[in-house]
Amino acid sequence: MDHESFTQICLHQLKMSGVHEGEKLVVLTQGNERLEYADAFMAAGARLGASMYHMRLPAPSAMGGWNVGVTGLAALPDAVEAQKACDMLIDCVFLLFSPEQFAIQAAGTRILTAVEPPELLARMLPSTELREKVEIGAEYLAKAKVMRITSPHGTDVTYKLNTYPTVAEYACTDEPGRWDHWPSGFVFTGGDDDGVDGQIVVAPGDILLPQNMYVRDPITYTIKKGFITDMRGGLDCELVKSYMDGFNDERGKGMSHVGWGMNPDAKWHRMTPGEFPGGMGMEPRSFYGNVMFSTGPNNELGGSNDTACHLDIPMRNCSLFLDDEPIVIDGEIVVKEMQMERS
Ligand code: FE2
Predict the structure, then answer these.
(1) Per-chain residues with Cβ under 5 A from ion ligand 1
(2) 49 with 152, same domain?
(3) Does residue 121 sit within a domain?
(4) Same domain, 103 and 11
(5) Which domain holds residue 290?
(6) What is the rounded CA–CA span in Å between residue 119 and residue 278?
(7) H or E segment to which residue 98 belongs
(8) Residue 65 needs a FRET pair 20 to 30 A away by CA distance; which of 152, 245, 261, 312 works?
(9) How many CA atoms lie within 13 A of 1 on its CB side?
């Protein structure tokens, strides 16, 4: 994407995020990654009269793999302090789940994560309508006491919802201390620590993240009191088990966030390498009518499980009920005021 086109979509993003003259913004990158993001955001911010600079961290050491919550900021407390002093941080590194991100938010700095390829950012721009619908979804979720998810493949699981807050992601952020991720479009919360019970059958076509794989044969999870007690299936199941075993951390079997996708611009099928190389799966997380469960940490929601073993698993054709009220039926959002037309 050329610089001016990238600048234009960043300008749209910053306007949607309420950036105005005199605000203090910082763009964070590391190593040689996403330097063109910083250029585009800087150019866009200048057009809005924001006071901006680019903070570039050293390249991470070549340990390989993604370690949830571990960032280069940990060794640079002065950099964290500088970010706390800003109105908005554009995170092109991916600080999510890190103690540094929580500290920066707590200081009132709003954070927008932008790490997906520019083509995907352009295809899934934030909009006022998406924000409104997602906020309605979040209102429904925030007042619910019980979530039940079912599917034709045998999923029947219940999450008790008495502990954790609801999080809405709509791809822009204009409130102090609030984090969002561009692109996105979904809502989630977490079940009580000992309050998730039942069975989840991940079916062919459902998606494993961070593996970025479409499941080919079913994986059956048995969940008791908030922990996975059994996993059965074929090769996909073996891959997930092997991945989880690699962390040597039983807390990876905890149940993490759960919710549903609401972005009509996101397509279920577009994660194939031929169509769309790279990326971290925000499109499959967001596609309209998916039901996504996750395993591992819940510290993002304020819980005590901060294991680095985390999977997000968006599923198709599920039904989701809040206190017995249908929200999603067979992969379609059925609450009128929450509905959008797929593009
Ligand atoms: Fe997640």
Answers:
(1) 294, 312
(2) no
(3) no
(4) yes
(5) 126-338
(6) 11
(7) none
(8) 261
(9) 21
Instruction: Quickly state the pLDDT bin for 280 (edges 50, 70, 90).
Output: confident
Q: Give the Cα separation of 177 and 36 in Å (integer).
A: 26
Asked which of 115, 143, 163 is the last residue of a domain, the reply is 115
Instruction: Summarize pLDDT for 219-266 with one digit per residue, the tens.
Output: 999 999 999 999 999 999 999 999 999 999 999 999 999 999 999 999
Distance of CA 332 to the CA centre of its chain: 20
d(C-alpha 129, C-alpha 236), whole Å: 37
Residue type, 55: M
Q: Give, in order, the Cα–Cα distances in Å from 325 to each of 140, 203, 256, 292, 337.
A: 10, 24, 22, 18, 14
Instruction: Give the Å distance between the CA of 247 and the centre of ligand 1.
Output: 16
User: How far does residue 74's CA lie from ligand 1's centre (Å)?
Assistant: 21
Q: Tokens in use for 8?
A: 């234009």
Q: What is the CATH number of the domain that holds 71?
A: 3.40.50.2300
Q: How far is the CA of 319 from the centre of ligand 1 (A)?
A: 20
Over the stretch 22-79, which tens digit does the pLDDT of each residue have? 999 999 999 999 999 999 999 999 999 999 999 999 998 766 555 667 788 999 999 9
Please give the distance, rounded to the nearest whole angstrom, from the Cα atom of residue 327 to the centre of ligand 1. 21
Does residue 81 sit within a domain?
yes
- At residue 105, φ and ψ (nearest 5 deg) are -65, -45
Q: Which residue matches tokens 């925030």?
A: 142
Element housing 6 (H / E) = helix 3-16
